[in-house]
Amino acid sequence: MSTDHQQYSTENQRDAIRDYAKRRHIEIVRSYADDGKSGLRIDGREALQQLIQDVQSGSADFKLVLVYDISRWGRFQDADESAYYEYVCRRAGINVVYCAEQFENDGSVSATIIKNVKRAMAGEYSRELSTKVFAGQCRLIELGFRQGGPAGYGLRRMLVNQVGESKGELARGEHKSHQTDRVILVPGPPREIRVVNQMFRWLIEAGLAESDIATKLNALDIRTDFGRAWTRGTVHEVLTNEKYIGNNVYNRRSFKLKRIHVSNAPEMWIRKEAAFESIVPHEVFAAAQEIILARARRYSNDELLEQLRTLYMRRGFLSGLIINETDGMPSSSVYAQRFGSLVRAYQAVGFMPDRDYRYIEINRYLRRMHPQVVAETQERIIQLGAEVVRHKATDLLTIDGEFTLSIVLARCHVPVAGQYRWKVRFDTSLFPDITVLVRLDYENRAALDYYVLPRLDFYASKLSLTDKNAIELDSYRFDSLEYLYSLTERVPFRRAA
Predict the structure, then answer these.
(1) For 225, which DSSP code?
(2) Residue 3 included in any domain
(3) Same structural domain for residues 338 and 368?
(4) Residue 280 gets which letter from DSSP?
(5) What does the alpha-carbon distance between residue 393 and residue 385 come to, in Å, rounded to a whole number?
(6) Which residues does residue 96 pair with via DSSP β-bridges, in sequence order?
(7) Are 210 and 63 found together in one domain?
(8) What was the pLDDT predicted at 26?
């Protein structure tokens, strides 16, 4: 199931399957359920993948697979995909029974025709729903409401009710709780607003490049809204985003039906001007855009493609983030404007983005981030008077020779049915006394919170988290590592018995 608010909740399916089995004297020996998972792709559906693996490996201890109805295999855009999974079961001698369908899955011509029609209908349902949802989102944008994503440096998200009355500011990671509530952008702290305007002045008055502006901000120890250092790409995002002059822009990128991410041409963008309070004067923003575009006009189309081709040959794949973070490269927005979209620019240099490669960049960033987090934790514990030994191969920390500490980073996965997920696998061979699970924010750029997990209570090899978890798990959650540091701090006794 993809959401809880529908007839296809796993509990309803389970009850229907149980009743079906009881009437026919079938013993249910195993259940496979993908809670909160989209049926558009098999990616991320661990239960379905496990079912297929059990069937193909011959380890299945059952002779029937009971499915609620045909659409529960998935609402695949290719109707043959769900047919394939049923065929895999039949080939292994395991029959498939649909408990809520009005026909017997007996291989007859009529059953085959009905199944094919219903598989196509399942995919069509997703396409129609996608169109309706997109139309609704565009309508909300035109009404001036924010649709997803972080506010950005210098801005904050404000929750309002259906008549526009403020209900309070949303902190990072918080979401609306009522269907009729909406979100708008409001100015952030005065200090951040001053920094944003200073960035525009450095560009316009001092003529600084975006990388130079990032260097100055880092030298002043100013961090982004995610608490990390500024880069050319993050500076460019501030200098080119219309939300700083109050415009609400949507559909610059799309990810419909769980297919590839696409950068849309400007004429496809949905825009509502003056939707929010501006924190940058319009004339200043317009002057900045002229400078940025003028710098880009130095390159012909051939020159732009040559730089992109060289980057592709060096990195092996392309994305907007890679382009923006590469010194000397025009920004990704330049390529999108010049060639209509990033995808068209990719295709012109021979790169065909048949899938989302962001996870490669994220994993590379995590590999750089992990030793930094370990080093910072080690240094902080040492400052508190403890002796820390760091194992070079595993980064395992031994505190005062008394207990061991392992630090694990968990990246945030793309939301399914509106729910973010963090999946982590622990290295059980280390056997640390305490595992610190650092959960990254939605952009996978900074720490969102921390879970301090003692081995006595947590010994599983993997863990899956959402925004809201059971109290048994969230009781170990902390906004910072101060609690951990308090555990390592040495406390002198005045006397001993």
Answers:
(1) T
(2) no
(3) no
(4) S
(5) 25
(6) 65
(7) no
(8) 94
Beta sheet of 477-478, edge-to-edge order: 388-390, 397-399, 403-410, 434-440, 447-454, 477-478
Q: Between the CA of residue 245 and those of 143, 149, 466, what are the distances in Å? A: 17, 17, 34
Q: Tell me which residue of 82, 15, 74 sits closest to 416, measured CA to CA.
A: 74
Judged by DSSP in three states, 3 sits in coil
Instruction: State residue 4's pLDDT score.
Output: 47
CA–CA distance, 435 with 396 (Å, rounded to integer): 10
pLDDT by 10-residue block (mean), the chain, 497 residues: 62 89 93 79 82 89 91 81 88 91 83 84 74 74 79 91 82 77 90 95 90 91 90 90 89 59 68 89 92 76 90 86 78 77 84 63 74 88 88 87 90 68 79 90 83 80 82 86 82 58
222 inside domain: yes
338 and 214 fall within a common domain: yes
- Count of helices and strands (H, E) across the chain: 15, 18
Distance CA 315, CA 361 (A): 11
Q: Cα(21)–Cα(28) distance, rounded to whole angstroms?
A: 7
Q: Which domain holds residue 331?
A: 155-348
What does the block give as tokens for 466? Answer: 């959402």
Q: Are 204 and 284 in contact (CB under 8 A)?
A: yes
Q: Count up the domains in the chain and report the number.
A: 3
Q: What pTM does this model have?
A: 0.47
Six-digit token string for 383: 């400052």
Rounded CA separation 187/4 (Å): 35
3-state secondary structure of 163: coil
Contact 253, 261 (CB under 8 A): yes
| Type of residue at 357 | Y
Residue 287 lies in a domain: yes
Taken in order 118, 119, 120, 126, is the CA torsion positive or negative?
positive
Q: Look up residue 350 and give its two tokens.
A: 């021979």
Residue 459: its pLDDT value, please? 65
DSSP letter for each residue of 239-261: HH-GGGGT-EEE-SEE-GGG---
pLDDT at residue number 169? 86
Round to whole Å and give the CA distance between 387 and 399: 6
Distance (Å, rounded) from C-alpha 324 to C-alpha 316?
Answer: 16
**Structure-token pair, residue 219:** 């030298």
Q: State how far Cα 453 lies from the chain centre.
A: 24
Beta-strand pair 412-416/419-425: antiparallel
- Interacting residues of 102 by C-beta distance below 8 A, sequence separation 6+: none
* Residue 150 lies inside a defined structural domain of this protein: no
Residue 324 CA, distance from chain mean position: 19
